From TrEMBL, chain A:
InterPro entries (UniProt xref): Beta_Casp (IPR022712), Integrator_9su (IPR027074), IntS9-like_C (IPR048660), Metallo-B-lactamas (IPR001279), RibonucZ/Hydroxyglut_hydro (IPR036866)
Alphabetical GO biological process terms: negative regulation of transforming growth factor beta receptor signaling pathway; RNA polymerase II transcription initiation surveillance; snRNA 3'-end processing
Residue ranges constituting the Beta-Casp domain according to the UniProt record: 305-433
GO CC term (a single one): integrator complex
Assembly description: Component of the Integrator complex, composed of core subunits INTS1, INTS2, INTS3, INTS4, INTS5, INTS6, INTS7, INTS8, INTS9/RC74, INTS10, INTS11/CPSF3L, INTS12, INTS13, INTS14 and INTS15. The core complex associates with protein phosphatase 2A subunits PPP2CA and PPP2R1A, to form the Integrator-PP2A (INTAC) complex. INTS9 is part of the RNA endonuclease subcomplex, composed of INTS4, INTS9, INTS11 and inositol hexakisphosphate (InsP6). Interacts with WDR73; interaction is required for the assembly of the RNA endonuclease subcomplex in the cytoplasm.
Protein function: Component of the integrator complex, a multiprotein complex that terminates RNA polymerase II (Pol II) transcription in the promoter-proximal region of genes.
Name assigned to this protein: Integrator complex subunit 9
Family listed: Belongs to the metallo-beta-lactamase superfamily. RNA-metabolizing metallo-beta-lactamase-like family. INTS9 subfamily.
From TrEMBL, chain B:
InterPro entries cross-referenced by the UniProt entry: ARM-like (IPR011989), ARM-type_fold (IPR016024), BRAT1 (IPR038904), HEAT (IPR000357)
Pfam (any one): HEAT
Keyword Cytoplasm attributed: yes
Record's protein name: BRCA1-associated ATM activator 1 isoform X3
Superkingdom of origin: Eukaryota
SUPFAM superfamilies: ARM repeat
Alphabetical keyword list: Cytoplasm, Repeat
Annotated PANTHER family: BRCA1-ASSOCIATED ATM ACTIVATOR 1
Amino acid sequence: MKLYCLSGHPTLPCNILKFKSTTIMLDCGLDMTSALNFLPLPLVQSPRLCNLPGWSLKDGNAFLDKELKECSGHVFVDSVPEFCLPETELIDLSTVDVILISNYHCMMALPYITEHTGFTGTVYATEPTVQIGRLLMEELVNFIERVPKAQSASLWKNKDIQRLLPSPLKDAVEVSTWRRCYTMQEVNSALSKIQLVGYSQKIELFGVVQVTPLSSGYALGSSNWIIQSHYEKVSYVSGSSLLTTHPQPMDQASLKNSDVLVLTGLTQIPTANPDGMVGEFCSNLALTIRNGGNVLVPCYPSGVIYDLLECLYQYIDSAGLSSVPFYFISPVANSSLEFSQIFAEWLCHNKQSKVYLPEPPFPHAELIQTNKLKHYPSIHGDFSNDFRQPCVVFTGHPSLRFGDVVHFMELWGKSSLNTVIFTEPDFSYLEALAPYQPLAMKCIYCPIDTRLNFIQVSKLLKEVQPLHVVCPEQYTQPPPAQSHRMDLMIDCQPPPMSYRRAEVLALPFKRRYEKIEIMPELADSLVPMEIKPGISLATVSAVLHTKDNKHVLQPPPRPAQPASGKKRKRMSDDVPDCKVLKPLLSGSIPVEQFVQSLEKHGFSDIKVEDTAKGHIVLLQEAETLIQIEEDSTHIICDNDEMLRVRLRDLVLKFLQKF
Amino acid sequence: MDPECSRLLPAFCSVLVDPRQAVADDTCLEKLLDWFKTVTEAGSSLLLLQENPCLVDLLSHVLDLKPQDVSPRVLSFSLRLAGMFAAQEDCFEYLQQGQLLLGLFGEAGPLSWAVWSVPTVRSGWIQGLKSLAQHPGGLHFLGDSGAVDALFSLQGDSSLFVASAASQLLVHVLALSMQDKAEGSPSLKGSAWPACAQKIVAHVEASLCSTTALQITQALNVLTTTFGRCHSPWTEVLWGQLSPLVAHLLDSEPVPATHSLVDLLLSVARSPVFASADCTLWETIARMLSCLSPMQTGPLALGTLKLQHCPQALRSQAFGVLLQPLACILRATAQAPGPPGLLDETTQGCSMTVDTLLSSKSACVGLLCQTLAHLEELQPLPQHPLPWPQTLLVEAVVIILRLCDGSAAPSSSEGCRLCGTLAGCIRVQRAALGFLGTLTLGTSSWELVPQVFAILLETLKSPASSPTVLKKAFQAVLHWLLDSPTPPGCSDLGPHTPLFLRELFPVLQKHLCSPCWEVRDSALEFLTHLSMCWGGEANFREVLLASDVPKLAWQLLRDPESYVRASAVTAMGQLSSQGLQAASDSPGHPEVQQGLVGELLHILSVDSEGFPRRAVTRVFTEWLRNSHADVVQDTEWFVATVLQMVSRDLDWEVRAQGLELVQVFLAQTLGQPNPSCPYAVALPKVTPPSPLPEVLRTLCQMQIFDFAFRALFDCDRPVAQKACDLLLFLRNKSAPCSGLQEAGDSSDVASVEATLERWQVGEQGQPLGSLEPEVVLAALRSMDLEGLQSRLAESSDHVEKSPQSLLQDVLATVALLEENVADCY
C-alpha cells in the first residue's frame, strides 16, 4: 500500500492511495497562494496600478520591467495570475481510477487533472460539494476572464533569471508548472465526471474495496472517507470540524478501528478560537460603522459567510446597525445564498428542524427580505445605483488579486475611517495587502477556521484509535513562528508518519488475508476434525476461481470417466490428480525426547546445536544431520535411504497425523 | 408566658401526640422551639412546666405512643424541647423524678426504636442532649445513660449533620467535664481527669491509632473543635498527651486524613494556650510542610503565615512552600533569577512541585490557582512575610499570563510543556489577573509598571480573552492605573501612564462594540471608575476626549441589554459630571443635540427594565448633589419632572431613589436634617435661601408633597419608611413657620385628610388636588407620623412570627385536615 503525495499544502491536499489493485486520488486541492505574486486585476482602470514602476536589476538592467512591477518595496508579476498545480510527474495520472472529494475547497484543481492527464475514471462527491464547488470555480473563472490581460509574463520563470529576483519570487517553487486558470468549458467537463454520493453510502470499486463518505462537520456536504476491504480499513480525514456551525455534525464513530488514518485539513490558525474571532469581527465592524467608515470583508461566496451573516443577524439590532446596508457581491452570490437554503438534509439538526416549520434554515433569508442584505453579481449594474455608505461589503477574492474586492481596496484604501477585515485563513493578510501599500484603511485579521485544532485531534485519535496516523509534515512539528508550542502538533503513539510534496510513502501495513468464498456444495462435503479444543481442520481440494477481484472455491470438476472399467479403490478418489494422499502432520518435536528416542534406537554420539530457527541434531557417527525447524524438518544423510527412513519414522512418531 | 399562648398550648400538645393528626409544616415547630428558647432563657423552666402541665404530658405521651405511631418530627421536637427545659438544674431534677429524661435519652428510649433510622430523630436527640448538658447533673446523666457511647458511634453517622453534631457534642461534654476540675489546677495530669473526659480522650486516642482513615478523621475533627473552642490550660495537657500520636500519623505513607490534620494543627497553633513556643507543634507543622504534596501543603502554609506568633524559621519555610510553584514556573521559563531572595531558597521539594505542575493539566491548573489565591489572600494582611518578593511575584504572574495567552517562548522542555498545558486556560488567567491586581498594594518599584501594562494590554487586546478574563483584566488595569507607584520627582500620572492610556482607549472602544454584552458592561464599568478617579487629570481628559469612547458610551444608552443600558447611564452620568461627554456639535447624532438630560429622562419614562431606570435616578441624585450644570439651570423644573416620572414607576427602588432625590433637594433648600448621631460633627447651619413660606409654596407647586404622601402609603416598606422620614423632616422644618399654622381652611384640610385615608387603604386613584402650604402643614401635624415610623420599623412578618399565630396555624391546619376528611365521606 502506497501513498503518493502530490500537494505539500496541508489544507489543500492531493494524495494518491494505491490500495490493492486500485488507484484512488484523495482530494484535488489547488494552491492559489501563488497568485499573491501577481499584481491585482482591477475591474476599473486603476491609474495607481498602471503607473507602478517597472523593476530593474541592481545593475540597472531593466529587461524585466514589462513583466515585473514594484510597489512599496515588493515586486509583482504583471500578468494573469497563475496557480500552483499538484504534482503531475510523480505518478501517471491516467491510471487513477477514482477521485474522492472531501469538500468544495479541495476540488479546485479538478479540471487540471480530469481534462489534461488522460484521466478516465470517476469522481465521487456529495451534491452540496459539487454545487458549491461549481460556484467557487465559476466565480474564479469569471473573476479572471472578465479582466482580460493583454500580456503574459513568462521570462521571469526562467531559472537563471528567477535566481536574480528578490524574495518571495526568488523562492517560489516549481514556477514552471504554474498554470493559468481553467475555462468554464473545462469546469463543466470536469464536473460531468462526478458521480453524486450520500453520507454512509457504500460504493464498490471493482469489487476490491468499498469507499464510504462520512459527514465531517466542516462545510455543507463535506466528507471524510472510509476506504476498506474485507480485512483492511483506511480512513481519510480531511477538513473536519467539531464545532456546532451550520453543517451536519462530524461522524466520529465510523472512523474507529482503522489500520491507517490519513489526517489532513486541520485548522490553519490553531491559536485562534473561532468564537473569539467572530466577536472580534463584530466589534471591529461596529466600531468602523459607528465612526462613519465602511467595512470590506474579502471572502469566498460560501462557507464561513453563512455563519457570519447569522452572527450579524443577531448582532446588528443590538449594535444599532439595523440601518446599515450589507452588500454581498459575487457572480454567484444569489446562487450561493439560495443553495444554502435547499440543502436541508446536509445541515445540522437545528437548521433541519426549521425546514419542517417551515422556515428557511438560514436567517440571511430574512436579512434579504428586510433589505438589510443585498446581493449583486458585480459592482456594475444595479449595485452602483443602490450603493450607500457607510456599508459593509462581502466580496471576493480573499487573495485580493482579482474579483470585485480589488475595486473596493482601491476605492476605500485611502481613508483611515474604513476597515478591511480578513476572515478567510487561506492567505497571509500582509502578503495580500502588499500591492495596495501604502494603505490608510485599517486592517483587522480575524481568521475564522472551524477545522479541528490539535486538542480536538488528540481527543479524536484517542477515541478512534487508528493503528497508524499519516499526516503532512507540518503537523508533526510546532509552527515555525512558535517553535516552543509543543501543544501545536500531533501527539500520538506510535508517532505519525509524515509526508511532503512529491514524496511516496510505503504505508506501514501488511496485507495478510484475502476473503475467499466456498461454494455451498463444496462446504457441504467437508468433514472437519477437531485437532484441539475449538479448532477443527478439514482438507479441501477445490478449484480457486478468481473474477472481478472476488475469489471463490468451487468443487473440482468431475474427471471424465476413464475408459477402463477399473474399480475405484476409495470414495475419496473423486478428487482428480491426487494420486496418494499423504497425511498432514502437525505438532512439534521435543528435542530432548527425540534425542532419547534416538539413543534408545542405537544411535550414539549425538550432538544438539541450537540455531536461530530451531535445532540441529548431529549424528556424528552416521554423518547425518537432522534439522528441526518450526515448519520443516530435514534429514540430511549421504545416500543411506534406510537410515533416512528409520530416522523419518522416529521423527513422525512425535507428530500427529491427519 | 402570654396567657393566650398558655390557653392554646394544651390543644397544641394534644394535636402533637395524636397519631391521626399529622403536623404538615415543621418550620412551625422550629419557630416554636425558638420561642420556647427565649421563654426558658428569660425565666424559670420549672415554673413554666408547673403552670403548663400539658408540656410534661406531651413528653410522657410521646414515650407512651406505640413505636409505629410516633411521628419523627414530633419526637425530634419533644427531644429538643425536653433538653431545653432540662438545661436548668431544678427543672432537670423535676423531669428526672418521673424518669422522663431517661425514657427520652436512655438506651431504652428512641435510641432503640425503629424511628431512630430517621436522621431528624437522631439530630433531635443530640440537640436535646446538648441543651441538657449545662450542669454537673446533666453531665452525670450523660455518663450514666450510655449516651457518650452512642455519640461515639454517631460520629460515623450517614447523615453529615448528625455526625458533625455528635462530634460537637462530644467536645461540649469534654469541655464541660473539665470546666470545674481544671480551673483550680492547670497542670492536672490526664490520669486524674473526670471519668467522662477520660473516656472521650481514650476514644480519641484509640481512633488516632486506628488504621481506617475515617476514624482518624473523626478523632482529628473532635480535636480540632476542642482546640478551637476551649482555651483553658487543660487543653495544653491534652495536646501534650496526644501530640506524639498525631505526629506519628506523619510516618504513614500516604499520610491519612491530611485535610483534617492540617485543620487540627492550625487550630492548635491558633489557640492562645499555645502562644508560648511549643516546639513539638512547630516541629510537626514543619514536618508536614516538607512531606505533603504541594496541593496539600498550600492551605497549611497559608494558615501558618496567618498566625500571629510563629517561629521565623517556620514562617520562612511556609512562605517558601507557598512560593514554590511560582519559583518553578520562573525556572522552567528561564527567567532571570533576580536578586537573591526567597524564591532562590526553595529548591527543597521543588521536584515534587515540578512533577505536579507537569503531571496533568488539571493538577497544574489546580495548584497554580490555589497558590495565586493564597498569595492574593496573604498580600494585604499586616502579618504578610517580609521581605515580600514583589518584583519576583510580578514577574512570575506576568510569565504565567504569557503562558496562558501563548506569548511566552520558553526554551526548556518543562517550559514548553507548561506552555502547552496553560495555553488558553481561563481559570489560571483569572486567578493570575486577580493576584496581579492586588500586587499594586505596597509596590514601590515603578520599574515593574511597563511590563505589567504590556501584559494587561495584550490580554485586553486578545480576541481569545473570555468575558470573565476581560473583566478581571479591567479590574487589574484599574488597580495598576490608580495605585501604581510613580518614580520620585514625577508628578501627575507617572511616565508610562499617558502612553498606556493612548493604547488602552482603542481597545476600550472595541470592547464597547463587543457582541458579548458582558464585555460591553465591564468596559462601561471600567470607564465609570476610571473617570470617577481621574476625571480631573489633564492627561486622561485629553486622551479620552480625543477618542470615540464618550460617543460610543452614549450610543450604549440604547443597548438592547438592560444591564448595559444601566452601566451606560452610570458611565454617561459620570462623564457628564466631569465635563467629559461627547462634544454636542458632532453632526449626524441628533440624540447629542437633545442633550443627555433628555436622553436619561427618556430612559426613565420608557425603559421597560428596572436597572436602567434605577441608574438614571441615581445619576440624577448625584447630579443634584454635586450641582451639575444641566441641573442648576432650573433645579425646580428638573426635580419636578423627575418626580412626575418616578412617582408612577413600578420599581420600588426607583421610587425610593426618587425620595432620595427629594431629600437632597430639600437639604439644599431647607438645610441639612439634624444629625441623628449625637457625636456627628455638627455642620454649620445653612440658612435657607428663601423665606420658609415661599419654599413651602414652591414645594407644593412641584408636587413634592403629593409624591411624598403617595410614597408614605407605598406597598413597599422601604419606600414608605423613607417617605415617613422625609415628611417628619419637613414637619420639623416647618415648625417655626407659625405664620401659616392657623391659616388653613378647615374644609380643605378635611378633604385632604379624607383623601389620604383612602390612599392609606389602597385607593390611590383619587388625586390630592392642588395643595396649599397651610393645608399641607395642617395635614402633616394631624398625622401620627412617629407612630407610623415605628410601625414601619417592624419587619413585615412580625405578626406571622408571633407564637400565638404559630400555635393557631398548627391548630387551624389540623382543623382543615379534619374538614377534608369529613368531605371524603
